[in-house]
Amino acid sequence: TPVRARTAQAHRIWVEGRHDAELVEHVWGDDLRELGIVVEPMHGLDDVVSLVAEFAPGPDRRLGVLVDHLVTGSKEQRLADQVAGPHVLVTGHPFVDVWQCVRPGSLGLRAWPTVPRGVDIKVGTCRALGWPSDTPADLALAWRRILGAVDSYRDLEPSLLGRVGELIDYV
User: Fold this and answer.
1) Count of alpha carbons within 13 angstroms of residue 1, beta-carbon side
2) Cα 151 to chain center, whole Å?
3) Phi, psi of 5 (to 5 degrees)
4) Greater confidence, 30 or 6?
5) How confident is the model at residue 9 (pLDDT cuts 50, 70, 90)?
6) pTM assigned to the model
7) pLDDT tens, 95-131?
8) 139-158: b or e for each residue (b if 16 or more CB lie within 10 Å)?
9) For residue 14, what are the contacts with CB-CB under 8 A and spacing of at least 6?
C-alpha cells in the first residue's frame, strides 16, 4: 500500500544528478515520504560550495550530500572537504557513476565494463554493452533498462546502501 507522505522537513538530501535521485526514490521512496525527506539533484558537484552556502545549513536545516566517485585524492573529495561541517554530512560511493551502484548480476552481467578515462562513463558503458549510445534518448533508454532491473536493496552495491542509510539517519 502506498505510504502517505509527511510534510517535507527543512532538511535535504542532495545527489549529483537525476539518475541518482531516481534510484534513491525507486528503492527508498516509501521511507523518504514517511519521514518527510526530500531528495534533490544538484546536476553535478562543481557548484556544491555555492549551493551549500545558499542553502544555509543549520541545526534545524541539515544537509546530506551523496557524491559519486568519493575517493581519496579526487576532485570530488576536495569539494566534499570544503562543504562538510557540523550541519552538512557528505558521503559517497567509490563508483564513477550511480549506474555502477546497480549490481551487474541484476542485469545479467558478470561485471560492469571498464570505460577508458576520458570517455563519458554512460556512453562508454552503453557502447561496451552493445547498447545504443549516440543520443540523450539512447542514454535515457539505457538508464530505464538499468533502473528496471532494480527490485530491492539486494540489487544495489553495499557501498551505496550504507551511504544512503547514513544520509537518511542524518537528516
Assistant:
1) 3
2) 17
3) -75, 140
4) 30
5) confident
6) 0.90
7) 999 999 999 999 999 999 999 999 999 999 999 999 9
8) beebbeebbebbeeeebbbe
9) 39, 40, 41, 42, 48, 51, 63, 64, 65, 66
